[in-house]
Design brief:
Chain B: It is found in: Cell membrane. The complex is a heterodimer. Chain A has nine helices and twelve strands. Chain A is α/β, with parallel strands linked by helices. Chain A has one domain: 3-Layer(aba) Sandwich (Rossmann fold). In chain A, the strands form three sheets. Chain A has a six-stranded mixed sheet, sandwiched between helices. In chain A, strand 1 and strand 2 form a beta hairpin. In chain A, helix 3 runs parallel beside helix 5 and helix 4 runs antiparallel to helix 5. Chain A starts with a strand and ends with a strand. Chain B contains 14 helices and no strands. The longest helix of chain B has 39 residues. By secondary structure, chain B is mainly α. In chain B, helix 3 packs antiparallel against helix 11. Chain B is globular, with a radius of gyration of 22 Å. The interface between A and B is medium-sized, with 32 and 23 residues.
Amino acid sequence: MSIKADNLVWKIDSKTIIDGLSFTAQQGKMIGLLGPNGSGKTSLLRLLAGLKKPTSGRITLDGKNIAQIGRRSMAQRVAFIEQHATTNASLKVIDVVKLGRFPHRSMFSGWSTADDAAVTYALERTEMTAKRNDHWQSLSGGEKQRTHLARALAQSPAELILDEPTNHLDIHHQINLLRFVSALPITSIIALHDLNHAAMFCDELIVMQSGRIVASGSPEDVITQALLREVFSVDARVESSPYHSNPHIHFVR
Amino acid sequence: MSVTAVKGGSVRLYSRFAVLIAILVASAVGISLIVGVSVGIGDMPIPLSSTYAAITNRLGWTNVDVNRIHETIIWDYRLSRALVAVFCGAGLALSGAILQSLLRNPLAEPYVLGISAGASTGTVAVIILGLGAGSISLSAGAFIGAFAAFFFVALLSNGARGGADQTILAGVAASQLFNAATSYIVTTSGNAQQARDVMFWLLGSFGAVRWPEFALVSVVVGIGLIVCLFYARVLDAFVFGDEAAASLGVNVSRARLLLFGVTAVMTATIVSMVGTIGFVGLVVPHAARFVVGPLHMRLMPACAIVGAIFMVAADIASRVLIPQQVLPIGVVTALVGVPFFAIILYRFRRAS
């Protein structure tokens, strides 16, 4: 058991954004978070990353309530990649990746061999080593996203949280990124819009609507004709893909 | 293999350390030289050697004969003025760099938090309305006004919780409000001479600063620089925004409050002594970033050094450009700063 949410409620003023939500993410699994726009995916991810405090309910990491975990300790094990994080500073790729070591360093501690190893590993894993001295502004969308991934990996996290990381990427980079995340040995929770991609790559899916979980489990159990009509208001046929055994959705005109 | 690796690493560390020392020494020499030049310029020119001798005499290191009048001019007027310029330039540049990073806006500068507008209102309240009936000095009035504006902005932008855009908008609102109050006071109750005094003060002048001002501004800016160095990595973590900084483990509201507070104290201190000198806080961080890159551990000292040299040079220019007359320092910084800024923008456009 890695991340566990227990009857989470989050309100802004009187508006309920997350409405009594519970789930458990198993160690090392890739969990896809699905749902229409405004269903509360981003809000849930922010709560899980500890960036916002739930109104009630609790989130535990390996049984420990994250409200009792300090900011820095939290950042040492949970990495978060938000939507469209960009900058106008002319940073190098290596500088961005080094930011991932921030929670592991004290105010004036020098750059350690462990820091160096983590950054080298992250750059290699994301195939950004050759681009390490390129400037942020000169990177393509796919390279920017890979740099964010490298920064998150440099945090040496046990849990990785990604908010629609495939947005604005071409299909090649979308598949690459999902394949990459699914191959990581860590727990990942990833908000996605493409249902077929989610069904292909995720170990488990969670479907949200109006701040609640309306379905969860393996892709086969979750992706059904009835759910697609009810939650996403689309007419579709679902069959088992002949190329991978997971479900594949045909949208009907 | 590991031995050579360690040896290579330590050699690299030593050479980097040597480079750092060399740069710091070169900067200190550069600042000392320009201060010496600044001290030498005026109605009575003083050679660099006399200035050097006068300083070492006073410090008790040497005992050389120096013209008494020269010594008096150096000690009582020009040296304090040049040294205040050093710290004002450094402080404004540091404040500009902090605000540009925290607000993630290349146009942010020390006065974006409404501080100059508040200071000017405080000043006219003392000069024209005679607030405090002589018990409050002009500087104290400016300081109080600056902080009134800062708290107004803090209140409007929802303490430290509001985002960068909200802070900038609140700063614009505060500037409008306090500038309107200043104009109201000047137009309804001032006479022509008072209006001219206020105008001159607003554009900045080092004419009135002496050793007490130096003592205050050097301590305030010195502390500011130390805080900046302590928070250099935190400022780096803000590069992708507040949320990204928070997810890296930064206590965002505490960092914002502390860094805004430091810029407010530095800026208010400087404005209350020498008026609102524009453009240093905007241009110098860009110039420094262009040379040393955006990482704050290097950027902050670079800003302090470049700001110091720029400000002393501007002070020299304000005294020599027109014979027998001293230009407001803010006029010089803008006249020199804008073309310089245009070059940076042009090169920046080509680079990206």
